[in-house]
Design goal:
- By secondary structure, the chain is α+β, with helices and mostly antiparallel strands.
- The chain folds into two domains: 222 residues, P-loop containing nucleotide triphosphate hydrolases (Rossmann fold), CATH 3.40.50.300; 121 residues, OB fold (Dihydrolipoamide Acetyltransferase, E2P).
- Helix content is 21%, strand content 34%.
- It is built from eight helices and 19 strands.
- Strands 6-7-8-3-9-10 form a six-stranded mixed beta sheet, sandwiched between helices. The protein has a five-stranded antiparallel beta sheet with strand order 15-19-16-17-18.
- A hairpin with a 2-residue loop joins strand 12 and strand 13.
- Helix 2 packs parallel to helix 4, helix 3 runs antiparallel to helix 4 and helix 4 packs parallel to helix 5.
Length: 373
Amino acid sequence: MKNMSKMKGYPSSNTLNVSISQQTLRPSNFSLNLDIQIPNSGVTALFGPSGSGKTTLLRCIAGLDKHRQGNISLNGEVWQSDSISLPPHRRPIGYVFQEANLFPHLTAGENLNFAIKRADKTQTVISYTDVIGLMEIEPLLPQYPAQLSGGERQRIAIARALLIQPKLLLMDEPLAALDETLKQEILPYLEQLCHSANIPIIYVSHSLDEVIRLADHMIVLDKGNVIEEGETQALLGTLGTSFTRHQDASVVVSGVVIKQENKWGLSWLKIGNQTIGFKQGKEKLGDTMRLRIQSKDVSLSLSEQEDSSILNRLHVIIDDMIKDPKDPSMMMVRLLVDKTPILAKITALSAHKLTLSKGQKVIAQIKSVALLH
C-alpha cells in the first residue's frame, strides 16, 4: 500500500483519523488498507473507479461494516478501536445515500421532524429555518415522497441528514441516481451546502465534474489503497498524477467575480493579477467561485494575438512539461498564472516548433465558452 499520511496513532485533535486493515471476519477477495487523516473542515472527496473502496470506507466510518479491523476517531473521540466499536446510532454522523430513502408514509416535513427527534441536543450545526432556506424546500414540506421529483427527494434527504445535527456529513454519490437534468438542478444546492457548512463533509463520487466543483481536498482510492491525496487544486495541477493522464485532464481555478458584461453575457474572474472571462450564470459581483479548465481547451502562443476570437489570453510561465505516457505524440505542459497552475495538452510537434522550455514566458489562450462552472 502507498501510505499518503504521516499519522501515527492520533496526534491531531482536529481531524478525522481513519486506520483500517484488511477484513478478517469473512472471506473476500477485496481488502481495505489505509491510514489517513481527513481535514476537519471543508469537503473531502473520495474518488476512484467502481470497486476501489469508496463506499466501503464510508460504511466503515459510519459503523455499518462490522467486518473490518481498525481505528476511527473524530476530534479525539474514539469510535472504533481494538476494544471499542460504537454502533451507527451512537456515531454523530449524517448519511446521504444514492437513493433518498425517505419514509414513504410520511410527508417531507414529517421526514424532517423524524430527524429532529433524533438530533444531538448538545450541539446545533444548523437551524431548521436555515436548512429550509438552504435547500429551498418549504413548498415541498406538505408533499409525500412519491409526489416529489428525484432531485426534490434528494434535497429533503440532505436536509434530514443535516437536522440530525451531525459532527460529520457523509455523502455517498448523492447524484448517481439522477439524470443529467436533475443533477444540474441539485448541484447548486450542494455547492451552497459545501460552502456554508461548518462541519466536515466526505463526498464519494466517480464523477470528476462533481469533485472539481465541490471538493477542497481529495483522496484517490484504487483496490482499497490510497494512491494520491492532497488539496484539489494542487493535485489536479500536478504532472504525473492519475488526473493528468485522464482523457479530460483539468484543473480548477478559484477567484472573485470582479466584472460583468450583461450585454455580452460574460463575467470576469480575477486570478492572481489577471482576469478570465466566462459565460455568465447566476454568479454576482464579489462572489467567490470555481472554474474548471480542461487541458485540451488551452493553447499556447509566443505572442499576443489581438486578431483572434479567443478572449482569454493569460501571461503564464512554463513550470514543467512531460510526454503523455499513453500517447507520446502529445505533451502535457504545466503553466503558472502567478501561483495558480493550469494545464495545456498540446502535440509534441507544437512544443518542438515553439521550442518550449521550462521557465519560458508564453501566452495561454482559453476560449470563454470552454470554461465550466
